[in-house]
Amino acid sequence: MSKSGISRPGTPYLLLLPGVAFLFTFFLWPIANLAQTSTQTPVAGGDTGEYEQSLRWQNYIDAFLENKEQFGRSFLYAAIATVAALAIAYPLAYAIAFKAGKYKNVLLVLVVAPFFTSFLLRTIAWKQILGEQGFVVPLLRDLHIIAPSTTLTSSAFAVVSGMTYNFLPFMTLPIYASIDRIDPRTLEASGDLYANGLTTFRKVTLPLSMPGVVAGTLLTFIPAAGDYVNAAILGSPQTKMIGNVIESRFFKIVDYPTAAALSFTLMAAILILVTVYIRKAGTDELV
Amino acid sequence: MSEKSSIQGDLRLTNVTKSYGDFTAVNDLSLTIPEGSFFALLGPSGCGKTTTLRMVAGLEEPTQGTISLGSTDITYTKPYQRPINTVFQNYALFPHLTIFENIAFGLRRRGIKDVKEQVEKALELVELSHLSARKPTQLSGGQQQRIALARAIVNRPALLLLDEPLGALDLKLRRQMQIELKWIQKEVGLTFVHVTHDQEEAMTMADTIAVMNEGEIEQLGSPADLYDNPKTAFVANFLGQSNLIKGTITGNDGDNHIVDLFGQKISLAKNRSHAVDNSIFAGIRPEKFRISRLATPFSGNVLSGGKIEDVSYIGVSTQYQVLMPWGQELMVFEQNDDAVAPFSVGEDVNISWEAGFTFALRGDEDAEAGTEVNPEEIIEDDE
Fold first, then answer.
1. Which among A266, B87, B210, B355 has most CB atoms closer than 10 A?
2. Residue B80: which of A185, A186, A196 has the nearest Cβ?
3. How does pLDDT run across B130-155, given as a tens digit for each residue?
């Protein structure tokens, strides 16, 4: 390597430069900006949206206490959507990796296909699916699973369904990648060593696919916790998530400090949860 | 080590056929492998040896025929219900488990009590006790191979299957492991069935070899049998090298046939002829030939009129290509063990050999069968 002159000491830094510059401009700088906004207070006698720095940390406490219900709901919905997506994605990924044969690539394209339509359109479509004119509600009523008066739109169910659907590819693809990497001979070896199908799954397949499961749950949970589109389109005031609060504080109420403080609190909460999760899952050795 | 499995005895394959669509991988194969033996299935890539092994392991179901172990029919039992363990090609160790847990896997599935003790014994057998806490990826190829062996042997199966177990190792390590495997087989006294495309490996280790070609067994016997008295051109060429010379049986002399090879008469023991009529291929192994200068006296069969075409000195022996009057080049291996000066290219020579070394094959065979395969090639998948 060193002979070619490619590895002059400065080269790696030079290669890093575009990325670092991008991150600085579009991530670090805005984050710093957001941080300093979060402790501002309104200018006395100023216009709406005019704030000045006064290092008011109390903003954080006020913002949290005012919205703890939405925080709780965000994490609850995100958790339910993650579990639901996992329950759908795992068998799907397993089937694509092991059973699809020559249809493998077609099925993978189908998993990604929804990305070709707008996220918003797909979410609005769920309004139709769960609406009175859709087939889901009449069917569930006929089967007496829901009462004749119950509707599914503007409900927690609709919000969680929308999130599960929208984040499903993010769950499926990493799990698929993990399962696809498993050497089928290790599964044969497990059968050879007296493990039946179920035991082989528990002792070999599942542990070996854990990196995908961890990646998939993170890729689903993190955006789901901060999501506001699903709640805005499919929910009601009773299903408001923290994303919706931040959105309305920024754009409607023009309460920048509270929105900034909420954003930071959300980031911190996600960071802590994710760290604990990765520690518990203990997959670092597997990657 | 734990009790041997309750099912035991000879492994018997009866009229086993395995087809994939139009392709017949194994064709009406019948075979008995005696308990306690070291048996090798030898053949080139695609000959059906791995498919046969996988059917014995339970990883494939035969299209027809039965497989039994002792008196128990195991044709359709699941792999995990068979007292058979496999050492997989490329080992297939569990990457998420430690070496200890890899070896303990089979014991734990069967609910054996003294797992720790038995795993430790198996690790001692393969001399890798110090690695029990490692993960498979932290081991060298040779070490992984031994762990795969320990993981199978610890279960004391009635039958141990080895699928090209040494294929991924370098030549030197492979030679060493061959000796070690043979020693371990004697030590534990299990039946080993070894699949390989490497004739030298099969001959070094196995008591009995079945040479397979195109889904069928060409010949079965001890390594010496197969080498000295091959029945088909395929076996003659696949196991070592052979000179096959087209000829005709012209008469008899007691227990011998008199054979005409392009106008020169040689003799051939009748019981070493596998020909069906007078048209034959006379077969002689290259190291059985002696080269002599013209007018030197000799005994046994002689072919005269040769000319040295090529000389390669390879240490223990010198290999000569000798062009015969009928245009065929014969291969001759001469030991470098006497004071005779090596022959040089262009010299006119005679070739002689002990009549008893000659074997005869059917004259309608393809003399090239089994030569075009390269036994050293590493085969990833044999199906």
1. B87
2. A196
3. 999 999 999 998 899 999 999 999 99
